[in-house]
Amino acid sequence: MLVDVAPSRPRRLRPRAGYVTIRVTGVMLAVLALGHFATTHVVNDVADTGSSFIAQRWATGLWVTWDAMMLATALLHGAAGLSVLIRDYRSSRRSQGRWIAGVAGGSFVLFLIGAATLMYSALGGR
Asked: What is the CATH number of domain 16-40+52-122?
């Protein structure tokens, strides 16, 4: 007896990639943000965390990289979360694509502004 089986639809990888991105960036943000909080508020006295503390911290490449990673991870986490919401609430694929492109473009612009500010401050505002 032969059974007529409908061809299976190919799986869409984007929702799974978004799910994994949100989970991985969430763990990364936990480590990065808690490390930032610990060095700023626990290891050092809060009264001593002025502009000279930040200038001294940003004099090393480690902390500039740390803060840039925290910025990039936070923006990626937010953009991935927004893209999941857009896919859930926008019915048209064309509309979804436009909204997601807008979120990606906005996140990229915010990253450029944040990275430029970080580099400008790390170089001593010259």
From this structure: 1.20.1300.10
